[in-house]
């Protein structure tokens, strides 16, 4: 009972993201969480040059994200923030591991630039902008994340937009989501509508960095795998196929099956199969 309680409460049970990082990542909580964790570890390195190493799987475990989500976030951060976030693949303990270098001054420079750009449509001086800009930022207490599996915030909607939540996805993906619905209906012979609930599930995965092709591939493979099964066919629907906790696994299996045409579809059970080890005497 004590162990369970310790996992539910206390600092070690919570994840937090500075509001500044959320704004810098344009509301993307996954990117902001990875950025926050990288900045944290950059302060713990004992190297004089500031470099430190951390595997993507370690970051994923710490943040309750998948390794693919961390990989996409690291790529996005190093692209958006240039030399403020440097990465190098070097060996650590004999294993190729990503090394990082965070330049805090450069990083916050991106934040300052974005604030001035967004609040200075008339070309006013930086001093004037700074005098009017709210002081809310680095001095704030970071908001605890009460849903670590999906990295969501408890901030009121009027203080921080939740536009990237699956329940309120970005409108820019609407056309892409409709393409996915059309493909789903074409493959399954169903008549799913482009309603808000279906679109939201699709937009959630598109916002995570997956492509329309990824979503369509999962649809096609699940139709092959589940379509002829009366019990499973009912689950070929947006709410199941594009569930955050399941989609990455579905896509991985679909890609493996795509590389081996003519073979039976790959399922999650295949990843637990250790029969191949029998010949090794294990």
Structure explained in plain terms:
The longest helix has 16 residues, at 244-259. A three-stranded antiparallel beta sheet has the order 2-4-3. A two-stranded antiparallel sheet has the order 1-5. The protein folds into two domains: 2-145, Arc Repressor Mutant, subunit A (Orthogonal Bundle); 171-272, no CATH class. The two termini are 37 Å apart. The chain has twelve helices and five strands. 23% of the residues are buried. It is elongated. A hairpin with a 2-residue loop joins strand 3 (85-92) and strand 4. By secondary structure, the protein is mainly alpha-helical.
What does this entry show, briefly?
With 282 residues, the chain is mostly helical.
Features:
5 strands, 12 helices, 282 residues, Arc Repressor Mutant, subunit A, two-stranded antiparallel ribbon, 9% strand, mainly alpha
Helix and strand arrangement:
Elements: H1 2-8, E1 15-17, H2 19-24, H3 29-42, E2 52-53, H4 56-63, H5 67-80, E3 85-92, E4 95-102, H6 104-118, H7 126-132, E5 143-145, H8 174-188, H9 196-207, H10 212-226, H11 238-241, H12 244-259
Helix pairs in contact: 3-5, 4-5, 8-9, 8-10, 10-12
CATH class of the largest domain: Mainly Alpha
Give me the Rg, rounded.
22 Å
Give average pLDDT, whole number. 75
Global outline: elongated
